[in-house]
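Researcher: Go.
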Amino acid sequence: MRLQEWPTMPDGNGSRAPSVWSTDFRQTFRPLEGKPVFGMLIAADNKRSDEREERLTQASASIPSAIFWFLLATLFVTVVALGICLPRKNNRGQLITLIVITALLTTMLVIIRDVDRPFGGIINVSPTAISEVERQAHRDFVAHHPAVGIPCGARGTRRAI
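Model: Structure:
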């Protein structure tokens, strides 16, 4: 999932692969239906699915691009208007103040945009937890089934059996 879905999340999208995996998971364990362990497996899969939906919701920008560009245009117009109103002589203090305020407001807009899109940009949420789960699952599978190959490739695609 890390290699298939995480790269699509900066745009607020997701991969279809986890849904396919969930369906395959339920079909594989269908013979256990009615037993307590099946309920535990389904509950764990539902929890994983809910957490994925939450990640995808967080990846979707809550500030529409049109509003961001409106704020940027408003900032530009304000700075230009204030720049035109500055006195022509002895304006060093006012010019420095205008530059500092412009820099601060621009930085604020960039930070707001970056925080609104946590899976891409300067503040980038990395798939640390998913990578750790993947490493543990690989280690446990190899420990319990040393003679069997991993059922999927490096990118999570199913191998032919």
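Model: The chain has two domains: 6-61+122-144, 65-116.
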